[in-house]
């Protein structure tokens, strides 16, 4: 049986920190679905379709990565695609309590799907999509935080505003 994992998130936008987790997860699992949660409680900069295209572009060299989006419960989505694992990244101790709550709820909803945490590389421990957007909005240097295609897309978005 193939090991299939879901790496969920809003990825608004995808950063090198996200790519670190995705790349390392792809070394462990046969198939990794990078799945964009269409979260109605957030006001994203990029549409789901734009995020899907950006992620496809920056993961195109990782053959066992697929990019998708979903609404609703993560465990339902995971079950529908045949996933038996969820990959989550941890940046700092401050992430742990929130992640523990999510994992506990997911386990309550479906105890057949395991959650695996990957600690991000130290160089990305401060990195978040929110910080990247804020720096990009004020035309700061983000070239070491996101892939060139993402930087280009951010610059284009903020040029329109």
TrEMBL record:
Enzyme class: transferase
Domain Cytidyltransferase-like: start-end pairs: 6-134
Residues that, per the record, bind substrate: 10, 42, 74, 88
Compartments in which it is found: Cytoplasm
Annotated ATP binding sites: 10-11, 18, 89-91, 99, 124-130
Keyword Cell membrane: no
SUPFAM superfamilies linked: Nucleotidylyl transferase
Catalysed reactions, semicolon-separated: (R)-4'-phosphopantetheine + ATP + H(+) = 3'-dephospho-CoA + diphosphate
Molecular function GO terms recorded: ATP binding; pantetheine-phosphate adenylyltransferase activity
GO aspect biological process, one term: coenzyme A biosynthetic process
Residue(s) at site: Transition state stabilizer: 18
Keyword Cytoplasm: yes
A cellular component term, taken from the record's GO annotations: cytoplasm
Cofactor dependency: Mg(2+)
Domain of life the protein comes from: Bacteria
Protein family per UniProt: Belongs to the bacterial CoaD family.
Subunit composition and interactions: Homohexamer.
Function: Reversibly transfers an adenylyl group from ATP to 4'-phosphopantetheine, yielding dephospho-CoA (dPCoA) and pyrophosphate.
Stored NCBIfam families: coaD_prev_kdtB, cyt_tran_rel
Name this protein carries in UniProt: Phosphopantetheine adenylyltransferase
Organism (species): Bacillus yapensis
């Amino acid at each position: 049986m193939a090991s299939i994992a879901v790496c969920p998130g809003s990825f608004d936008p995808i950063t090198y920190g996200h790519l670190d987790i995705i790349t390392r997860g792809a070394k462990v699992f046969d198939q990794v679905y990078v799945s964009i949660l269409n979260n109605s409680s957030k006001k994203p900069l990029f549409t789901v379709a734009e995020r899907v295209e950006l992620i496809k572009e920056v993961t195109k060299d990782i053959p066992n990565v697929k990019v998708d989006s979903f609404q609703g419960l993560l465990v339902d989505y995971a079950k529908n695609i045949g996933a038996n694992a969820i990959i989550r990244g941890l940046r700092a101790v401050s992430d742990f309590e929130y992640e523990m709550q999510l994992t506990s709820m997911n386990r309550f909803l479906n105890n057949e799907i395991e959650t695996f945490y990957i600690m991000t590389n130290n160089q990305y421990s401060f990195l978040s999509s929110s910080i990247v957007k804020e720096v990009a909005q004020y035309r700061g240097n983000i070239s070491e935080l996101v892939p060139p295609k993402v930087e280009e897309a951010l610059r284009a978005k903020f040029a329109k505003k």
